[in-house]
Amino acid sequence: MQLLQVTSRQITFSWTAPSSGNSPITGYIVVYNQSRKAKDEPLESVRVPASDTKVTITGLNPGNTYAFKVHAENALGRSGPSQDLTITTEEEAPANSPQDVRVIPLSSSMVKVTWKAPSPSSLGYLLGYYVGYRDLSTNEPYVYKTVDISKQERLNEALISNLRRNTKYAITVQGYNSKGAGPASKEVIVQTLQHDPPRSPVLKVINTSEFSVELQWSISEVSPITGTKTLSLNYFSFVQYLISCK
């Protein structure tokens, strides 16, 4: 069998007429199914007149692999199958957008975006996502970050950094494959934090005794630190604290 044409939803191939066995061939039967389906699932079939040795199979799904066989028929019955012809249809760009897009501000300059994969559309295999973001206080267009599925340790997640403090952004996500990008998700609005969470203090042991230890730590922060009360600390402010172990 010889492949003549393949698109995303149809395939055309031909074959050489076999020996008739001294009884004229009355027709051909082309049987096929998706190669990843269970073997016990019924095969699709198409009848082809004896005058043709070519067929176009339509109604296929993009980005799927199919196995084809051809049987010849005459007055005495049906021949055995030909060798398999395995063909993968071309892909189409994703038809559906990612679902359940959520955005969490992590700091004054970074947000975390998570989403769920688009609902299956049988149009091909996703290669990754484009995560778009734009500053709502300007007229600038979307900036896109590419998330390559093959290189991601955490699927369906992206960190967007270098954002402006205390600023609202619109976020969208769209999947892509070898044929292009699919539709974008609905915009999600998020605002970066005005202040950053405090960093971990740098702790030093200054002095120890039998019943006590004197600790010193430095805090490198310009943002307010909140607890039982709020302290505004400049860079490298030092605090000493005596802990009694008695």
Which helices and strands occur, and which strands form pairs?
Elements (H helix, E strand, L loop, with lengths): L1 E5 L4 E4 L10 E10 L9 E6 L4 E4 L7 E10 L2 E2 L6 E4 L10 E7 L5 E6 L11 E8 L7 E6 L8 E4 L7 E10 L2 E2 L6 E4 L10 E7 L3 E8 L17 E8 L2
Keywords: Repeat
Organism: Araneus ventricosus
Pfam families: fn3
Based on the coordinates given, report the CATH architecture of the largest domain.
Sandwich
Count up the helices.
0
The name CATH uses for the topology of the largest domain is: Immunoglobulin-like
Number of domains: 3
Indicate the radius of gyration in whole angstroms: 33 Å
The H-and-E topology, N to C, reads as EEEEEEEEEEEEEEEEEEE
The secondary structure category is mainly beta
Strand tally is 19
Distance from first to last alpha carbon: 90 Å
Uncertain runs are: 227-246
Q: How does the major sheet shape up? A: 5 strands, antiparallel
Question: Which overall shape is indicated by the principal axes computed on the Cα atoms?
Answer: elongated
Helix content: under 10%
What is the CATH homology-level superfamily of the largest domain? Immunoglobulins
Hey, roughly how much beta strand do the residues contain? over 45%
CATH class of the largest domain: Mainly Beta
